[in-house]
Amino acid sequence: MTQVKNTFQFEDMLKKHHLKKTAPRLRVLSMMYSKTTATSQPDLENVMHDIDRVTLYRILNIFEEKGIIHKVFDLNGTANYAVCSSGCQENHHHDEHLHFNCTRCKNVYCINDLYLPGLTLPEGFKAESFTLYANGICPKCEKKPHH
């Protein structure tokens, strides 16, 4: 379940990450925190008509760089963005959780409450990040009759 934040918390978040408080950044943060699934830039463009594509692209990039959001790919290879856990920092994401792609509704869910064992790699390998995906049917789609 997403945590609802207010404008002051978003302003504090921007300040903490040394970002200027701008109306478009605050709107994108508000929209991202209101979603229960990852969302793509085109989906954001469809609901945020007053923010042009280039500005939205820059906002998503700086938020990802600062550890506010992380990128996850859907079944079509489209980049989607989801809010990071509080453990993420600038240029170092801790989004080692399961990303669940629903094959029916095409939504991407971040599953944070699943225990994942540590990653043990062969000698000489050093992981900087990893992404774990599962594909299947989400609870919403499981309840609906399939056409």
Automatic annotation (TrEMBL):
InterPro entries: FUR, WH-like_DNA-bd_sf, WH_DNA-bd_sf. Keywords: Iron, Metal-binding, Zinc. It comes from Mucilaginibacter segetis. Binds 1 zinc ion per subunit. The keyword Metal-binding applies. Fe cation binds at residues 93, 95. Transmembrane segments: none annotated. The lineage of its organism: Bacteria, Pseudomonadati, Bacteroidota, Sphingobacteriia, Sphingobacteriales. This is Transcriptional repressor. Its cofactor is Zn(2+); Mn(2+); Fe(2+). One of its GO terms (biological process) is negative regulation of DNA-templated transcription. Zn(2+) binds at residues 102, 105, 138, 141. GO terms for molecular function: DNA-binding transcription factor activity; transcription cis-regulatory region binding; zinc ion binding.
